[in-house]
Design a protein that fits this description.
This protein has 306 residues and is an alpha+beta fold. 17% of the residues lie in helices and 38% in strands. The chain contains 5 helices and 20 strands. The protein has a 6-stranded mixed beta sheet with strand order 2-9-8-4-5-6, with no helix packed on it. The chain has a 5-stranded mixed beta sheet with strand order 11-18-17-13-14. A hairpin with a 6-residue loop joins strand 15 and strand 16. It is rod-shaped and about 130 Å long.
């Protein structure tokens, strides 16, 4: 393949281009379109209100000279590191409500203090070099969790429990700025929502006179009520049986609230005793209730005496 060289007129045209433009063009072509790069933007995706957090921007200059590091919240620049001004390289342009620890900020770190819900948003780190004047940036979202001042509240708890009778408990949590997950536990076992289609199929396939022992111990009916800026509430209804009673003859109910992958977690526990007369008749011997076994034993003794 023949190589074609530019003619003299084109060479003249090239020489008329300013030298700094030619240098910039050649350095860009030879070095590539991106020399500097941000290797990691280290910051939490969620944090609790009232805490202090650090945002770290780790970058590689690839032999270039650093011109500036800028931080933005949304579109607003609030911090700039400019090493040319070696006496005072840090500059702050803080909007109302954004607080930082100025002494803890440097060429790659920004320290946010006493964070609150209004400080949620996208944070961007932008790194710029001198020679090529190249800029790269990276951003991440920060969600600030403002939990309620109280723990989850369990309501509907009876003074004592009657076995084989249905109870209905509710758990509520005041409004918070992110949606929490509420879960009920019985004796530290998570209560699972009843699978209605599977349950109906199971009942249909079970013989009428067959004991239905394969139903889940913690089968229950749950409802969830929630509207905008209202408390989060769940409730469940179920029959308490002997297998739910612990060794102290009590049943422990707990409601756990969590949000943002464990950034917020609170739990409330209540212990409820079982009615004593119910406990007398709930023991079993070979599948026959204890009081029935005692009656049979008494009848057998009477026969022997006669």
């Amino acid at each position: 393949m023949a190589i074609r060289f530019p003619n003299r007129q084109k060479m003249k045209d090239l020489r008329s281009i300013p030298l700094f433009v030619q240098v910039f063009f050649l350095s860009t072509v030879l070095r590539g379109s991106e020399t500097v790069k941000i290797s990691d933007l280290e910051m939490p995706s969620a944090a609790r209100a009232g805490t202090d957090i650090k945002l770290k921007c780790r970058y590689e200059l690839e032999g270039e000279t650093l011109r500036s590091v800028k931080w933005y919240k949304g579109q607003h620049e609030f911090y700039r590191y400019f090493p040319r001004e070696w006496k005072k390289p840090q500059k702050f342009f803080l909007p109302p409500g954004l607080t930082v620890d100025r002494d803890a900020c440097d060429d790659c770190t920004v320290s946010l203090t006493r964070i609150h819900a209004d400080m949620s948003g996208f944070y961007t780190c932008e790194v710029t070099t001198e020679e090529v004047f190249e800029s790269v940036s990276q951003r991440k979202f920060l969600q600030v969790i403002e939990p309620p001042a109280v723990s989850p509240k369990i309501s509907g708890v009876p003074q004592e429990i009657s076995l084989n009778k249905r109870i209905k408990l509710s758990c509520s949590l005041p409004w918070m700025n992110v949606k929490p997950t509420l879960e009920f536990f019985i004796n530290n076992w998570k209560v699972k929502e009843r699978d209605e289609p599977k349950l109906n199929q199971l009942l249909e396939s079970t013989l009428h006179n067959q004991r239905r022992t394969d139903l889940r111990t913690y089968t229950y009916i749950m409802s969830e009520l929630e509207s905008r800026r209202s408390p989060s509430t769940i409730s469940f209804s179920m029959k308490i049986r002997r297998e739910h009673v612990n060794k102290d003859n009590k049943v422990e109910f707990s409601c756990r609230a969590s949000a943002a992958n464990g950034t917020y977690e609170e739990e409330t526990r209540v212990l409820v005793g079982v009615r004593r007369r119910d406990l007398i008749y709930v023991g079993s011997v070979g599948g026959v209730h204890l009081h029935q076994a005692l009656q049979l034993l008494l009848l057998h003794l009477l026969i022997l005496l006669v």
